[in-house]
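Model it.
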Amino acid sequence: MIKAIFLSILMSFFISGCACYNSNTSEAMRPLASALTKLSSETEALVRYGNPPPPITEEELLKLATKNDPGFLDTFNGYTLHALSQDRHVIILLCTEDRKQGLLEDLGCTASLDRNLWQEDAAMPCEFTLSVELGCQQR
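Modeled.
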């Protein structure tokens, strides 16, 4: 009986600890997700209508997209950003600083965040998973 009570208490601490971790992660990701959708939208507009000079690196593209708010990229300090431009559309990927895990991924042609990689069952690598061809077909 005492073992069962102890085990129940131990399990409740373990479960609540996991819930706190997920809650803290969720709290950290929410503002980043919002900022990422803004960044992907700005970068999409640049790629679609601004004709950035080729060849352009990911870093140069993101800086050019945020030239009216140069401090905006500071929102992502401690993380790594990647930008993929194809067919006048863009995908932005946010990863951990060590580039080992993908956290958020967004198509610039959509209004809301497209993928919360950090919520996947297994840790997702820092690689693009979305497709411009499929995600931006009708846009």
